[in-house]
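Incident review: delayed structure delivery

Summary: a single-chain prediction request sat in the queue longer than the usual turnaround. Root cause was a stuck worker, restarted by the on-call engineer. No data loss occurred. The affected request and its eventual output are reproduced below so the record is complete for anyone auditing the incident later.

Affected input:
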Amino acid sequence: QVRLVESGGGLVQPGGSLRLSCAASGDIDPEFTMAWWRQAPGQERDLIASIAAGGRIGLSDSVKGRFTVSKDNAENILYLQMDDLKPEDTAVYYCWYNGYYGQGTQVTVSS
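Output delivered after worker restart:
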């Protein structure tokens, strides 16, 4: 069993920053890929950031240069640092591990 709990979402103005966290517990292999997905209203869930074995990072073009993904392997916590946020970043953000999703955390970018 795997449990993923996201936190850190909220309302922020355009250009602002937020840091999301995902605490993973249960049957977790620190070397296995973890990722962030997001889903905007009426749209499909999209993969935006991942971190794989050895720290190999992937970022979607939509967030490259603005978002940073990192992981604390000792504590099994996945982070997403989001800078220069835009209204189109508004979505529910989900943590992912081995087919499991967390409950999601809402990020709203609006003035």
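Verification: The chain has a mean pLDDT of 96.
Action items: add queue-age alerting; document worker restart procedure.
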